[in-house]
Design goal:
Triphosphoribosyl-dephospho-CoA protein; 15 helices
Length: about 300
């Protein structure tokens, strides 16, 4: 199986869905449009495949797991993305979530030698093993990737802030691994939380709900409703960092209301989605539920790796 293509497809499926407050085929933001997300998906594909090959090498004993190079892979992915579009940070969070999945998928498929789908239980175990084998150099590369992407909403962290020029040197001198850095940030960044808690939102909430929706409604409605479900349950940490936690919670309440009306599966819900989308765009991209979108992309990655094809 071409794992890189599975992950590229997941990004394309995510951006093609008309999710409120996000870039899609019908909406964008000033300076950021769907074409830049499409270019990003294409650009990152070879790096995803390289990550998968490293996973195969780990399984075959040709590479030690501590040398998976998660931080380097994220930096390579971001570098390629930035070279192929002019919209700035498009999929940093997605790349961060995808690299452990890609390496773990290589390990998992190498063991199973199958072509139809991946055993998600083994995949999840391998993800956890890869993440906790990360090194201090992985952390440095990750910080360099963030420097390249220049994402919005980077507030001062309690320790090892990416805004502090001394942090990279401290990571090495104090031997602080990437998983340890993410553990510091887990309570205010759901990307970091997914890493260190073994992707609980992706595996335990989003994926089962999406599978239920897929048998009831079309793909677009299923993905949109899953997005609303996760946003309703988890105030978006990207919004929280830019506009405050209370605003993020208000948006989650509104997402729950829209979903209760049927979301993308009913006429009333579709009207509510349009209104919700307009509200989220009132402040430019400050109310953009970007972390939720990244988690939905990771959820779609599980689908494509498990054999789903549109």
């Amino acid at each position: 199986m071409n794992i890189g293509r599975c992950l590229q497809l997941a990004i394309l499926l995510e951006v093609s869905t008309d999710k409120p407050g996000n870039v899609s085929f019908v909406s964008g933001f000033e300076g950021t449009c769907k074409e830049q997300f499409l270019a990003s998906a294409i650009a990152a594909g070879p790096v995803f495949q390289d990550a998968a090959k490293r996973g195969v090498q780990i399984f075959c004993g040709e590479r030690v797991i501590n040398d998976a190079g998660l931080g380097e892979l994220v930096k390579l992915g971001v570098k390629e993305v930035m070279c192929w579009q002019r919209g700035g940070n498009t999929i940093l969070g997605t790349v961060m979530l995808f690299m452990p999945i890609a390496v773990a998928a290589g390990m998992t498929f190498a063991k199973e030698c199958c072509g139809s789908g991946v055993d998600l239980k083994f995949l999840r175990r391998n993800i956890n093993d890869v993440i906790y084998a990360s090194t201090a150099m992985d952390a440095v590369y990750l910080y360099e990737a963030i420097d390249l992407a220049m994402p919005n909403g980077l507030n001062q962290a309690p320790d090892f802030s990416v805004n502090d020029p001394c942090s990279k040197q401290r990571l090495i001198s104090e031997n602080v691994t990437l998983s340890q850095v993410f553990n510091i940030a887990k309570d205010y960044d759901d990307i970091c939380s997914e890493w260190v808690r073994n992707y609980p939102i992706t595996f335990d909430e989003a994926y089962p709900y999406l599978m239920e929706q897929m048998v009831k409604v079309d793909q677009n409605a299923a993905v949109t409703n899953t997005f609303l479900k996760i946003l309703a349950s988890h105030p978006d940490t990207f919004i929280a960092r830019k506009a405050g936690l209370e605003k993020a919670k208000e948006i989650s309440v509104e997402a729950k209301h829209v979903l209760e009306l049927g979301g993308a599966a009913t006429v009333e819900g579709k009207v509510a989605i349009k209104k919700f989308d307009s509200q989220l765009r009132e402040a430019g991209n400050h109310y953009n539920p970007g972390t939720t979108a990244d988690i939905i992309a990771a959820t779609l990655a599980l689908c494509t790796l498990n054999g789903y094809r549109p």
